[in-house]
Specification:
44% of the residues lie in helices and 6% in strands. β1 (52-54) and β2 form a beta hairpin. The longest helix has 17 residues, at 71-87. A two-stranded antiparallel ribbon has the order 1-2. The chain has a domain at 30-94. α1 packs across α3 (71-87) and α2 (35-44) runs parallel beside α3 (71-87). The protein is mainly α and 94 residues long. It is built from 3 helices and 2 strands; from the N terminus they run ααββα.
């Protein structure tokens, strides 16, 4: 099977199964600037998926990009993105 997505999984179903499994078996860090927070913010602002997080406060500390993240951190990012998509809370640009 050809891997045609940017997250390294063979299919979106494989990715979904992985991060939902991770979400159910680990404590997710929801701090401001963390992977879950950045995923939910990217969804909120309709920026699309681009896993990353900040070591400290958002935009006030070192940014960690996807190539530097662990699988658990990437899973937390996607869980945050999906949580916001599920509840449909999006920025209204008036």
């Amino acid at each position: 099977m050809e891997n045609d997505n940017v997250y390294g999984f063979q299919s979106w179903a494989d990715e979904e199964e992985f991060y939902h499994q991770e979400e159910n078996t680990m404590e997710i860090d929801r701090r401001h600037g963390g992977p879950w927070d950045r995923g939910s913010a990217d969804s909120y602002y309709r920026r699309g998926r681009c896993p990353h997080y900040f070591v400290g406060g958002t935009y006030h500390s070192e940014e960690i990009t996807e190539d530097q993240m662990t699988e658990a951190e990437i899973a937390a990012y996607h869980a945050g993105f999906d949580d916001n998509e599920k509840y449909g809370v999006f920025k209204e640009w008036d």
